[in-house]
Amino acid sequence: MPQITVYTRQLCGFCTAAIRALNEEGYTIEKIEADDNPCLRTELVERSGQSTLPQIFVGDQSVGGYQELSIAMADGSFAKLLEAN
After folding, report:
1. What are 58's strand-pairing partners?
2. What is the CA radius of gyration of the chain?
3. Where are the domains of the chain?
4. Which of 20, 44, 51, 59 could form a disulfide with 2, with the two C-beta atoms 3.0–4.6 Å apart?
5. Which residues contact 85 (CB under 8 A, 6 or more apart)?
6. What is residue 52's three-state secondary structure?
């Protein structure tokens, strides 16, 4: 199974919700704190085109943030993305 990486920041409700949703489904994730790391934030914008957190990746592919993750989990496209990678 490809690596699921969640870039987060402290005191972020959407970050907490994304991690909770992934954990509840039994996924193993790598959590990376992006607080106070402007270089990492710049890299995330380059990789995903988004500046908000959380940013969720399956392998090198951007899933998006919490809302995109929720939709992808509900419609089954997240599981398909994991299978394809």
Report:
1. 4, 61
2. 12
3. 4-84
4. 59
5. 2, 58, 59, 61
6. coil
Fold of 4-84: Glutaredoxin (3.40.30)
pLDDT at 2 (0 to 100): 85
Write the DSSP symbol of residue 59. Answer: T
Tell me, what amino acid is at 12?
C
Handedness of CA 53, 57, 6, 77 (dihedral sign): positive
- Return averaged pLDDT per consecutive 10 residues of the chain, 85 residues in all: 92 97 96 92 91 94 96 96 85
Q: How far apart are CA 38 and CA 68, in angstroms?
A: 24
C-alpha distances in Å from residue 77, one per residue of 13, 19, 63: 23, 18, 10
pTM of the predicted protein model:
0.92
In whole angstroms, how far apart are CA 8 and each of 13, 33, 83, 84?
A: 10, 5, 24, 25
